[in-house]
Structures are given as C-alpha cells and as structure tokens.
C-alpha cells in the first residue's frame, strides 16, 4: 500500500523520516521491531533521517545513542530542535550575543557551535531566551527566563510537546515547562522552532530530491501535524503517545495518511491502513446511532479503525463520541484498538 499503488507502503518512498521517542525508542530502549525496520530500509536502498523535538541531546549524541541500541544512524541524519533553534538565533543576532538557556547542556553546545554565547542569568543582558527540554530544569531557571523576557529578550521555544513518552507512561515535556513560563508572563513564545512547525521535515525532505518522503511519528499534535504543514504524507504508529481514540477526534490539520500498530506497517500491507477508509470497509460497517459510533461486521482491526475515521471525520463536530460494538468480532477489534473498556 503506497501512493504509487499496491505492494509495500515503503516502496512508494525514497526517504523515511522517523520521530524518535515513541517510534524508535522509549527513553533508552529500542521499541520492538525498530532495529529491524531501519536495517531493512537501508538494505533496500532507502534513505533514513531522524527528526526529534527533544533538545537534550546533540545530533552526534543522538546518533551514538541510536547506534548503541543497534539502530544505524549518522550525525548528519539526525535533525534536532536544539540545532534548529541555534541556527534561527544565529541568523537573528550578531556573533557572541548572549542567549539565556533554559534546558540541557546540549542546547548550550549548539549555541556555541554557531558562535553565540550561552548564559544562565538575566543580569547578563541576554538578547534572547531559548527554552528546551532538560530533566534538571527548575524554578530558578524559569525565574531568570521570566526576568529576561520581561526586559525585552526574544523568547524562543525549541518545541511545545506537552508530554514525552516513557516506559511508565507520558511524562511532562518541554511544553509543560513552556506553559509555566507562559502563565507567569501572560504571553506566548515569540517563536516555536520544532514540530509541528514544518522546518525539520522540510529540511529532511530536500534530501529525497523529489523522490518521495514519508514521515513516521507517534504524535498527532507534533509529528503528524508537522508533516501536514510540510505537505508530506505520514504514518501514525500506535507505539507512543497518540492512540486510536485520539485519532478519531483529530482535526483536519493533524490527520495522518496511514496508520499502523508499529513499524511492521512499512513492509507488510496487511499491517497498515490508509485513513480515512469508507463507512463500509474491509468487512466492517460503521454508523452513528444514538450519538455513538456503532461498529458491526468482522475483519482486521485496522480496517475497523479506517471505517471509524471515515464516519468520525465526516462532520465538523470534533467531540469524542462513544464507540460501541454491534458484533462479537467488533468487540474484539475495538479491544485491540483500545476503544472498548
């Protein structure tokens, strides 16, 4: 299944751009099948890139982390929001300009690499504040940033992910810390660099030289929305943050082209589906009854999801409707999709 007609999804694309957290790994462990998927892509002559909003590591560090997990990666294949933010600031301010950093050492290193001077206090007269994820960020960092922004510093956020995935479930992401500063300042950042802004994906897509680029992500509000903004097809995998229930209420600007349970969908046409399908798809029928989405029939769970998307997305109403099963097979499929308690 691909834009080029039948066969494997991946056969329609020269370049595959992966998100990392929730797609390739969870914190420091590869997601099952990720090592094999990247290996198969390279063996088949496909280009691979990685685009991450996590600003706590430099590209070289991410490449080393991936390689240590058995996932082949080179630094030039890794696009980070930290590096993108540093480049934006380099283009806006003179060399050696002071930039207050709220984030990890990797973000400071990226600023130094482009000729800017990272600082940690507002009384060092920073021209900008750059805020990225860092596990050690605390109140004192946010306080200095608030003072600097009120004094006129440009406020740049590497990303606004509300959460980041972990083996214990979603944890606060950079967006949660940006929200704290937003509350204190009663204003938004001047610029958000990472996904869902299209810059990371647009940069990666240029490497495909017009031969086709597919974005693979686990979050509708960053990966998939970013791909939509960049005009690129996308595959949502259900190994990270966004699930089937989120997909049914996704706004038009954050809807994927395809959905798969995991990365096997790249290679197995039976493990991926294009969304939306039709209200009657793959043996399933979905109808609205008593303001609920009722599923009847039998078939692949993913086809049921495609049919559900067809009906759920056919209206401008984005409220979550209950999903009901009208057959034993439908109940099993909805359980597999996490849509049936």
TrEMBL record:
Residues covered by the GCN5-related N-acetyltransferase-like domain: 282-339
Gene Ontology MF, one: phosphatase activity
InterPro entries: GNAT-like (IPR041065), HAD-like_sf (IPR036412), HAD-SF_hydro_IIA (IPR006357), HAD_sf (IPR023214)
Domain of life: Bacteria
CC annotations in GO: cytoplasm
Xref: Pfam families: GNAT_like, Hydrolase_6, Hydrolase_like
NCBIfam families listed in its UniProt record: HAD-SF-IIA
Protein name (Swiss-Prot/TrEMBL): Haloacid Dehalogenase Superfamily Class (Subfamily) IIA
Organism expressing this protein natively: Micromonospora pallida
């Amino acid at each position: 299944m691909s834009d080029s007609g039948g066969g494997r999804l991946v056969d329609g694309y020269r370049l595959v751009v992966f998100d990392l957290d929730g797609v390739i790994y969870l914190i420091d462990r590869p997601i099952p099948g990720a090592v094999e998927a990247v290996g198969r892509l390279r063996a088949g002559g496909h280009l691979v890139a990685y685009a991450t909003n996590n600003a706590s590591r430099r590209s070289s560090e991410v490449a080393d982390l991936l390689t240590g997990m058995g996932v082949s990666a080179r630094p030039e294949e890794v696009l980070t929001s930290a590096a993108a933010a540093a480049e934006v600031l380099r283009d806006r301010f003179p060399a050696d300009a002071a930039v207050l950093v709220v984030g990890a050492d990797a973000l400071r290193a990226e600023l130094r690499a482009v000729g800017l001077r990272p600082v940690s206090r507002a009384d060092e007269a920073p021209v900008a504040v750059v805020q990225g994820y860092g596990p050690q960020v605390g109140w004192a960092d946010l306080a200095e940033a608030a003072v600097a922004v009120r004094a006129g510093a440009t406020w740049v956020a590497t990303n606004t992910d509300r959460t980041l995935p972990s083996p214990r479930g979603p944890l606060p992401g950079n967006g949660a810390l940006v929200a704290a500063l937003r509350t204190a300042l009663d204003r938004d950042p001047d610029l958000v660099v990472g996904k869902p802004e299209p810059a990371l994906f647009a940069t990666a897509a240029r490497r495909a030289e017009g031969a086709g680029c597919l974005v693979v992500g686990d979050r509708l509000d960053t990966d998939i929305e970013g791909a939509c903004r960049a005009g690129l097809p996308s595959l949502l995998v259900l190994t990270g943050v966004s699930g089937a229930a989120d997909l049914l209420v996704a706004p038009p600007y954050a809807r994927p082209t395809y959905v798969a349970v995991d990365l096997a969908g790249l290679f197995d046409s039976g493990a991926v589906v294009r969304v939306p399908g039709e209200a009657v798809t793959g043996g399933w029928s979905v109808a609205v009854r008593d303001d609920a989405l009722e599923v009847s029939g039998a078939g692949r769970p993913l086809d049921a999801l495609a049919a559900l998307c067809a009906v759920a997305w056919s209206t401008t109403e984005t409220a979550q409707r209950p999903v009901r099963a009208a057959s034993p097979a439908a109940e099993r499929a909805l359980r597999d999709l996490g849509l049936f308690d």
